[in-house]
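A favour between colleagues. Tell me how you read the following sequence-structure pair.

===
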Amino acid sequence: MKVYLLLFLFFYVAPAAYTQPQGKVIEEVTVPSAVLGRSVHYTVYLPSDYEVSQRTYPVVYLLHGYTDDNTGWLQFGEINRYADKAIAGGTIPPMIIIMPDADSSWYINSYDGKEKYEDFFFKEFIPAVEKTYRIKSQKQYRAVAGLSMGGYGSLMYALKYPGYFAAAAPLSAAVFSDDEMENMPDAQWDRMFGQLYGRGLKGKARLSKAWYDNSVLSVIEKKPGAELSKVRYWIDCGDDDFLAKGNALLHIALRSKQVAHEYRVRDGAHNWTYWRTGITDALAFIGNSFRQ
C-alpha cells in the first residue's frame, strides 16, 4: 500500500503542485527621444529571478514586423510563455528581452533625414534601456532578433554595427533583391518604402544610394567575410513564405563570403504560427552565444 501511495504522489500530486516560474512583463514603458522628437514605447520581459537576484543579465532586442508595434511579440508571439518554458528547462539562460516600437520605420534612417530611427536606437535607446535594467552591456551578452520587417532590422543592425551584437536571429526577414524593388508595384512602393527612399520613384530610380546603403544583399557584398563573421547568424524562413527567395539569396551571399551561419527552411508561411514555433530555437542559438 505504501508503494502505491508513493507512486500516486509522484505521478499525480507532484506534477500538479509544480508551477513553472514566470517572468515579469512590463507592457508599456516609454523613453523620450530628442533624435525623433517624441517618446517611444517599448515592452520588457524580465526573467523570473530578476526581482530576487542582484545579478546582471544578457539582453535580446526583439523587433516587431510591419504594421505591428512593441506589443506584437507579447500579444501574438506569446514570447513570455516561450521564454519562461525555455529558461525553466535550461534551453536558454535567463535573459532580458526588450521589444521597442518602431512603427513603419524599418528600423533605419530615412533618405531625407525626417525619420532617424537607427540613430535613435543606438544613440538613445540602447543606452537608456541598459541603464534602467540590470543588463550586461558588453557585446558578447547582447543580441538582436525579429520577424519580417524586424528580421530586416536585426540583419541591418548586426551588419552595420557588429561591435554591438554577439548574435542575430532574423525570422522571415524582409530581404529584397534589386530586381524585386525595381519591379515592385507603384502603390506598394509608395506605401511601404516611399518615406524611406522617396515617393513616386519608378524602376531603376529606386536603386539609389540610400537603397544600396540599406540593402541587406548590397551591404554583405561590400563587406569582407572577416567583418561579417564578427556576428553569429541564425536565419529561419518558411518554404511557403513570400520572402523565401530573399532569404535564400541571403544564405547564398553569406556562403559566398564564407561566413558561418545557420540557415533553416521549415514548413510554413509568413504568420505567427511559424514564428511562435521558431522563436525558442532562435533564442537557444542566441543563448549559446551568451554562454560561449
Summary: The longest helix spans residues 272-291. Residues 5-14 have pLDDT under 50 and may be disordered. The two ends are 50 Å apart (CA to CA).
